[in-house]
Design goal:
Radius of gyration: 15 Å
Structural class: alpha+beta
Order of helices and strands: EHEEEHHHH
Largest sheet: 4 strands, mixed
Oligomer: single chain
Helix content: 40-55%
Distance between the termini: 25 Å
Number of domains: 1
Strand order of the largest sheet: 1-3-4-2
Strand content: 5-15%
């Protein structure tokens, strides 16, 4: 992954209190130890910078920060509300494996899904269906963010494969997730022909 420092920005107004796992793309969320959070690697910050620019193009100056951490006890990648702050936490061993399989596009997609929960919690959009459960709304926001992320063709294919491969335990099948993702991708300026109908 390329190297460059950046800040990850998104939205999240959670109340102070005990850490709350909002979404985990893995089954071991209960093993997460907040005291083991560490600074992210420069590689992860580079990708976060790309998402940051995309998110800012959606919410402009109303985007508070979401902290990015690495933590070996995390359930793959997860969004946690802790003491009134939002944290996107990734397990370094998971990101390494996901990067080997799906490259930058895969990591961007997994992070974008988690950010989608933060965006859904604070932004409204007429194209987000109120009947969609939270995971589908997060997929729709992920599609929107990724449409603004200036992805290369190979990154688009990789992002779809990674989203299908690493769902949260509560996620419906990829076939149910694809339409909301496509809606967000299209609504935010992406070419729907680039994401196809398969996979």
């Amino acid at each position: 992954m390329p190297r460059r420092a950046a800040l990850l920005a998104a939205l999240f107004p959670f109340a102070a209190g005990a850490a709350q796992v909002v979404c985990a793309l893995g089954s071991a969320a209960s093993a997460y130890k907040p005291g083991e959070d560490q600074r992210p690697t420069p590689d992860a910050l580079e990708l976060a910078g790309r998402l940051n620019a995309a998110v800012k193009s959606i919410c402009h100056n109303t985007c508070p920060s979401v902290a990015l951490f690495r933590n070996a006890s995390a359930a793959n990648v997860m969004l946690v509300a802790d003491a009134g702050q939002a944290k996107l936490i990734y397990a370094p061993q998971f990101f390494s494996a996901a990067y080997e399989a799906y490259g930058d596009g895969g990591i961007l997609a997994l992070m974008a899904h988690e950010l989608g929960h933060a965006l859904d919690d604070t932004l409204g959009a007429v194209w987000i269906k109120s009947t969609w459960p939270p995971e589908l709304r997060a997929d729709a926001w992920a599609g929107c963010v990724l449409a603004r992320a200036d992805l290369a063709a190979d990154e688009i294919e990789s992002m779809l494969e990674a989203l299908a491969k690493y769902p949260a335990p509560a996620h419906p099948s990829w076939e149910l997730r694809r339409p909301p993702f496509r809606a967000g991708f299209t609504e935010c300026g992406g070419d729907p022909s680039k994401i196809g109908n398969s996979k």
